[in-house]
């Protein structure tokens, strides 16, 4: 569709003359304008791409993982807007991927859980009924259960899209609530002047230890569930401690007051995290359990 260069009317079907004023259409002019728009869009994308310094982002991750406090302080004082936003997007997507990984881990462990459960039930039955050793298990029943579980694993019924989006929302909600609480606490209670972007960077970089420990947690969960849970708790403690030290040193907040602000913000963020999980993820779990139950029936 083109437009008249004189009156601005729409010219349908690439007509040669304007239906309103009769002016001859300058096709070359329209093509040039379209080309200029494409070139402007390309230049804008190129400008954003040029601002992305891959080595800088890699160094930020390396320093913050190996030295959470010192690396975090450096990130808060030196990092510009574009790298910070890119890291936020990367961590959000990483949380979504970790959520899918965790669900797959649970699904792959279902057969072991069911086998152990059946063995325990059989052991209790023998214990109270007397007779054969506790591990005299009905192998045909175990085979039937494992066969059903294997069928479920290879069915494309797991809502990976919902799991990814839900976990991304979990991270963003927790991050946003933590950011708001700390910003309000520092601005109104500590009465320290600070820019929102500085608080944004402080909260952002403090979430990195949780991500790292969550990856380690998933890996160690294949060996021991308790060990995996321990690493998650460790990540939370490191992140809260890192955030507290960064806030205290970067914004010169009173020691007693920063403890109150950080602890209150952490509790509120945890509540928001749990509520968001209940709202978005319970439906996913119900879907998986329902489809899994239909296979067992």
From TrEMBL:
Parts of the chain that traverse the membrane: 83-101, 170-190, 202-223, 229-247, 259-282
Coiled-coil region list: none
Keywords, in A-Z order: Membrane, Transmembrane, Transmembrane helix
Domain spans labelled Putative zinc-ribbon: 1-24
Domain of life assignment: Bacteria
Keyword RNA-binding part of the UniProt annotation: no
Annotated Pfam families: Zn_ribbon_3 (PF13248)
Keyword Transmembrane found: yes
Protein name: Zinc-ribbon domain-containing protein
